[in-house]
Amino acid sequence: MTKPEGFNTMSLTAAPDVFRQLADKLSNISEESFFQHLVKSLADILEVDHVAVEHVDSQQGRVTSLAEWSQGKFNKTAPYLLSGTPCQHVVNYSTYFVYSQVSQQFPDDKRLAALGVEGYWGVVMIAPDGNLLGVISLMHSSPLILPLYAEEVLRIASVLAGAELAHQLAESKTRERLLYKNQALKRIGRHNEALLNTINEQQRFQNAVVNVATAVAAENGEAFLHQLTAHMAEALSAEVGFIALLDTHNADFAHTLTLYVNGQIQDNFAYYLPGVPCHKVMVEQECIVVEGAAIMLPAESNGALSWVNGYVGRRLDNSHGQPMGLIGVMFKAPLTDVDSVRNVLQLFAARAAGELERQQDEERIRQLAFCDAGTGLPNRTAFMHHLEQVVLDPQSPNFALLLLDLNHFKEINDTAGHDLGDLVLKTVAERLVASLSRHHYLARLGGDEFVVVCPDMEAGHALALAQRLSDSIALPVVINQQSFTLSVGVGISLYPQHGSTPQALLKYADVAMYQAKRQKHAMCLFEPWMGRVVFEQLNFAKRLGKAIADKQLNLHFQPQVDLSSGQLVGAEALCRWHDEELGDVPPGKFIPIAEERGMIVALGNGVIEQACSQLAVWRAQGHSMPGQLAINIAAQQFEAEGLIANLLQSCAHFGLEAWQLSLEITESGIMVNPEKAIAMTEVLKNHGFGLAIDDFGTGYSSLAYLKRFAAAKIKIDISFVRDMLTSDNDRVIVATIIAMANTLGLETIAEGIESQAQLDALVSMGCAQGQGYYFDRPLTAERFAQRWLS
Ligand code: C2E
Ligand code: MG
Ligand code: MG
User: Which residue, by CA, sits nearest to atom 4 of ligand 1?
Assistant: First the structure.
């Protein structure tokens, strides 16, 4: 099912979208430098006022700005000292976060004061060799609240920036060294004819550096590598220049990425490495063949290089030291000045490796943006993109959309853990792939939802395919010796019969899938009548989600009394929802929808908070509430993590003791996962919370379990109380429940007492407490206080 809008919609789709933005932005580098581009993109994506990338010289304790973006424009900050700035903390701790008032915390930092910075987050920039190079800082003029994906964005940014800066520093160092060498050589050369040749070599070296520098500014990506190779061959007067990449699947093979022969670009080819000089490069980092290289060259070059003599190759490693490929030059003549060629090649190798790695990083970002990491399938973003194209494509006049949602997958996740759940999903993905042909497009929409686009497919075939997919999933999945039996609900919509836009088609497939699940069928083809019914439900769920988020639900309170004395012994908090459009909606209607749509935990947390807050309000008004306030807890809440922490937190916040609350969990809720429920009831009891089993008699719990629950109270279900005076059967049930509870030492409370006769019968059977319209209806907090609290 698509999650209702307005309700936790960010988590699944937003993060990949952000990576796509980052990838787009960073691959379109124009006149601005890489760092300028980076700061601007980060400010934009993370919505912060200022972003700075700075080089840190930790020995001298100095910080130099590489680029700074501040409220819509580039800013210049003069170099400053590290001490007394948040940067120093970043350097010390790798990352440093200040939510607000950072300027006050670092009164000596002039920039913070000048920009009026409140919130700050910095991370270090590390060179590929692990050395600290600098800091990326996010600064904001108000307290810093960042989206969840900020951390991953910043991590990737810091890796990219670290690699870039390391290259820039290495280049400028080489340039400095060259300049110095060159001057020295010139001085000596004036007196030594023999060195003239070497000076020319050095000149060539220097030209090469300039070439590299200009190439960096001019181009990016593939074109950059072509240009680099051409420059390299030219700078070394080599007839051949090339870059080759290792095959990602088979390290015995390499592919040329770019190959220049006599200034002409050649077709790329793949070649077998063992036995050729390039292989030695991969093993030993470098290979030099002074003469006669031609006979060792790969056969795949088809004799086109039969005239080659000299060969120099160098391995290209990424920043983790893993080989990515190699770069090299070849000469018609035998090599004479080996050192000079090696030096120049090394320089080009550094630049090429940097660029290749950047391309690989970008590829990774793209993967993150468009690929679902768990299954390797295209994700929702990629799918929507694909669907848009299919709808526009005149070649595909009709197609079917199949939406698959696993049944009860959440239970696997909850009981077996998320890691195992992920493996199950991966297996499901593999089975789906195996049942589809290459014309079908399969994607994972998120969670346990998959979708297939089937070109040129009519209703009959779509249903048959759905059956095949459902069958493929029905075989047990065995992981780590655990076996899982899965089933799926498939909804099908057809283009163009059912809808003409991607959004409509997806919605209709969702509607059909929902219908399949309701009817407990494996699949369902969309039919127009479904639209109205299910849209009403979707609308309902959407409004409910919003009401929960906006805290528009409130509580009524129903007294619980001692049957013999009529004294108040507690109250039950019951949730109420009034919606502008739908009017008063009874909990019997909205609670099941909240459970079905995964909103019950949020709803329940709101109830806990309100109930505690109300007890505090009554206390402040001088009312004393005898006994416990009972709160209904749904099975999913009981299973979710954080229930106890939430309860304790609310109690602490409103100054309450645990014993003031009692939790009602239904018998059927407990039976969803009795062992876990038993453990949970123990924990709750140890914290001092009261516990009652609600709707008792309807959930088939065995006596064996009942003994083990740490419940103090059993609530006899309303249906037995209602009919006990007319049905002997129900009367016997009520009597048995009460007798059984008494032997187990549990209290009993009867729900739904409406008459004196029911009351008398219950008292005679030994029931101690009761609740029902006979005493009072659920009341607003004010009415309840007026009528029941002293
Ligand atoms: P429940 O917990 O068994 O609550 C008792 C229900 O019986 C309440 O219905 C109450 O108004 C009703 N009732 C009480 N006395 C009488 C009576 O004498 N005659 C009749 N005919 N009904 C009586 P309500 O408020 O409509 O709640 C229905 C169910 O909704 C609750 O059953 C409970 O399962 C669920 N619910 C209500 N609030 C919450 C909540 O905050 N969280 C959760 N998880 N469920 C809730
Ligand atoms: Mg209840
Ligand atoms: Mg009940």
Answer: 574
Assign a CATH topology to domain 395-526: Alpha-Beta Plaits (3.30.70)
Q: What is the pLDDT of residues 693-718, one digit of tens each?
A: 998 877 655 556 677 787 889 999 99
Q: How far is the CA of 536 from the centre of ligand 1 (A)?
A: 24
> Contact 750/771 with Cβ under 8 angstroms?
yes
Q: Which amino acid is located at 17 in the chain?
A: D
Q: Where are the domains of the chain?
A: 7-163, 192-365, 395-526, 554-789
CA-closest residue to ligand 1 atom 35? 587
Element (H, E) at 324: strand 323-331
Fold of 192-365: Beta-Lactamase (3.30.450)
Residue 529's pLDDT is 86
688 touches ligand 1 (CB under 6 Å) = no
SS (H, E, C) 197-248: HHHHHHHHHHHHHHHHHHHHHHCCCHHHHHHHHHHHHHHCCCCEEEEEEECC
- Ligand 2 centroid to residue 712 C-alpha, Å: 14
DSSP state of 43: H
Cβ 607 under 6 angstroms from ligand 1: yes
Q: Quick check: helix, strand or coil at residue 22?
A: helix
Strand-pair partners of 240: 261, 330
Which atom of ligand 1 is nearest the CA belonging to 774? 18
Top mutation candidate among 661, 718, 721, 723 for ligand 1, by most atoms within 8 Å of CB = 718
The answer to whether residue 216 scores a pLDDT higher than 70 is no
For domain 554-789, give the CATH superfamily: EAL domain (3.20.20.450)
Please answer whether residues 90 and 52 qualify as being in contact, where contact means their C-beta atoms are separated by less than 8 angstroms.
no
Per residue in 121-158, is it b (16+ CB within 10 Å) or e — as a string?
bbbbbbbbeeebbbbbbbbbeeebebeebbeebbebbb
Q: Whose CA is nearest to atom 33 of ligand 1?
A: 632
Highest mean pLDDT among 335-339, 632-636, 651-655: 651-655
Is residue 754 lining ligand 1, measured as CB closer than 6 Å? Answer: yes
Chain CA centroid to CA 478, Å? 26
CA of 694 to the centre of ligand 3 (A): 5
Return phi, psi of residue 69, to 5°.
-115, 130
CATH class name, domain 7-163: alpha beta
761 ligand 1 Cβ < 6 A:
no
The reply to whether domains 7-163 and 192-365 share a CATH topology is yes
pLDDT digits (tens, 9 = 90+) for 513-531: 988 988 888 999 999 888 7
Distance CA 202, CA 76 (A): 37
How far, in Å, is the centroid of ligand 1 from the Cα of 564?
A: 23
What is the distance in A from the centroid of ligand 1 to the CA of 575?
8
Ligand 1 atom 43: residue of nearest CA: 632
Residue 8 pLDDT level (bands cut at 50, 70, 90): very low
Whole-number pLDDT of residue 3: 29
Write the pLDDT tens digit of every residue in 274-331: 999 999 999 999 999 999 999 999 988 888 899 999 999 999 998 778 899 999 999 9
Residue type for position 285: Q
Distance 649 CA to ligand 2 centre (A): 22
Which pTM was predicted? 0.46
